[in-house]
Write a structure and sequence with these properties.
Elements lengths: L6 E6 L5 E6 L4 E5 H6 L4 H4 L8 E2 L7 E7 L3 E6 L7 E3 H9 L1 H14 L9 E2 L16
Antiparallel strand pairs: 1-2, 2-3, 4-8, 5-6, 6-7
């Protein structure tokens, strides 16, 4: 994606469950809060390497409480489950929108593989490699 691509509109739905984002290339995406929460770019979710990425269940009813601009390159989303450490850059938001169908199917498959679901709040632990989530990385 071209890093110069800018959003022309970012609007939270009245029920706080969908973030609508439009980009200058004409693309428009309605990104569900659940999808944004489980795709958070934070170290808490992504870890510090692909092996540390966590699959999070139980977020079907999550809502977005805050959309805070970060400079001119991103927004920080605050969710009603108190998660607020993900900074969503314009490129990442565009990628989430563009690849929604494939990414969502991957997420649903990962939930099933780990015995998780969208209703029950549990996290499948990442492989412990001494990094994020094990307490040794210092980010929690």
């Amino acid at each position: 994606m071209n890093e110069d691509l800018w959003p022309t509109e970012i609007r939270l739905s009245a029920d706080r469950r969908v973030l609508n984002v439009a980009f200058e290339d004409g693309s428009r995406f309605a990104l569900p809060a659940e999808y944004l929460r489980v795709s958070s770019p934070s170290a808490e979710v992504q870890g510090h390497s692909p092996l540390e990425r966590k699959v999070i269940g139980g977020k079907r009813a999550v809502a977005i409480l805050a959309v805070e601009p970060i400079g001119n390159y991103a927004v920080k989303l605050g969710f009603d489950d108190m998660h607020d450490t993900g900074i969503y850059g314009w490129g990442y938001l565009h990628t989430l929108g563009r690849d929604y169908d494939a990414r969502w199917q991957t997420y649903l498959s990962e939930l099933a593989e780990r015995g998780l679901d969208r209703e029950t709040a549990r996290t499948a632990p990442a492989k412990q490699t001494g990094g994020c989530g094990s307490g040794s990385c210092g980010c929690h």
